[in-house]
Amino acid sequence: MATLKDVAELAGVGMSTASRAISGKGPVSADAARRVQAAIEALNFRPSSIGRAMAAQSLGMIGLFVPTFFGSYYGTILKQTDTELRAVHRHVVVATGCGESSPREQALEAVEFLIGRDCDGVIVISHDLHDEDLVRLHKMHPKMVFLNRNFGQLPEASFCADHERGGELAARTLVEHGHRDIAVIAGPSTASDNQTRIQGFFAELARHGIEREDVTLIESDFSPEGGYAAAQTLLESKRRFTAVFCANDTMAVSVLARLQQAGIAVPGDVSVIGYDDDYSAAYAAPALTSVHIPTADLTRNAVRWLVNQCYGTAWEIFREFPVTVTMRASVGPAPRRSAAFAQ
Predict the structure, then answer these.
(1) pTM of the entire structure?
(2) Residue 233 neighbours by CB under 8 Å, 6+ apart
(3) Contact predicate 148/80, CB 8 Å
(4) Which residues of the chain form CATH 3.40.50.2300?
């Protein structure tokens, strides 16, 4: 395989001249540039990625850690990251955890894997990592950004929506439709973003005189299977409810399915509100009312901020991400009498 030295010798120029002609950086005469180009074509020379990296002090790739590839939420993040990096001619290298260790240990191993592959920057999405983990990883690789994580020790590197506000809006939507017999299907209690949205939800209910102990709370795992199983548990509990708040849309869609199978009309008998407003929500049956988290905007600004750090670009960065509710068909007025469901 031809080397830079071979190109320089065939073109009759020094290696530094050949390097400048190939990279386009630095002075090269028109005649020397033509001879170098002719030598490249004659030798079928292709600069190695390592050589380009040594010249540019960059491998031209950004690492991304996600806990899983499954689901429309992570799909939005992956798609937006790819879009932003394509625009600046950079590659994305994606890693998830592996093995049978705890989610936290898998996340640590995966981020360290990306750092070890000399990624120019790293995007981290994890609610399993502790604050001290983020500090240590950031020391290992300062060009790092945290998505969907409010990390007070590194606020510039953190991009997160106001999940407490999101929980408040979900509760307010149900109360304003007359619901007081309410159930909640939460995500994992260890997930920081889940904790915050549930906290906001119950704080808003309390302002309307609904106490936490009067609300049925079932912890799940954000998955379709988890949402379906939680709906079954709710039906078997014989607790009265006219509305269900699900901590993400993936679980909410499964809840809609289980209620439909049980012959329970949505929203005639029970209203359902989800969270995230991912692209599946509009196509549920009935269409799912959901708290809208601007995930694409969050991802866009997080990636652009990191690109600025890595490559000296000057993207304008926004840090305000309004949280709203997208009203659809799955929420309606509370029925005059709530019912207990046992299936």
Answers:
(1) 0.80
(2) 218
(3) no
(4) 61-160+295-323, 163-288+328-340
163-288+328-340: CATH class: alpha beta
Alpha carbons 339 and 183: distance in angstroms, whole number: 13
CA angle 334, 336, 341 (to 5 degrees): 75
CA 244 to chain centre: 24
Give 3-state DSSP helix, strand, coil % of the chain, rounded to 5.
45, 15, 40
**Low-confidence stretches of the chain (pLDDT beneath 70):** 1, 23-26, 47-59, 337-343
Task: Return the CATH fold of 4-56.
Answer: 434 Repressor (Amino-terminal Domain) (1.10.260)
Torsion angles phi and psi, residue 5, rounded to 5: -65, -40
Cite the beta strand spans of 27-155 per DSSP E: 61-65, 91-95, 121-124, 144-147
Helix (H) or strand (E) holding 243: strand 243-246
Which of 282, 175, 288 is CA-nearest to residue 227?
Answer: 288
Copy the structure tokens of residue 163: 């999940």
pLDDT for 24: 67
- Using alpha carbons, list the distances in angstroms from residue 172 to 55, 69, 175, 216: 57, 32, 5, 17
Q: Are 230 and 255 in contact (CB under 8 A)?
A: yes
Pairing of strands 339-340, 240-241: antiparallel
Q: Given this model, what pLDDT does residue 53 score?
A: 43
H or E element in which residue 195 lies: helix 192-207
What is the model's pLDDT at position 99? 79
Render the burial of 136-169: b for 16+ CB within 10 Å, e for the rest.
ebbeebebbbbbbbbbeebeebbbbbbbbbbbbb
| 3-state secondary structure (DSSP) of residue 301 | helix
* Contact status, residue 271 vs residue 332, Cβ threshold 8 Å: yes
Q: What is the pLDDT of residue 43?
A: 86
Identity of residue 268: G
Overall CATH class of domain 61-160+295-323: alpha beta
Q: What is the pLDDT of residues 213-263, one digit of tens each?
A: 999 999 999 999 999 999 999 999 988 999 999 999 999 999 999 999 999
CA dist., res. 123 & res. 138, Å (int)? 11
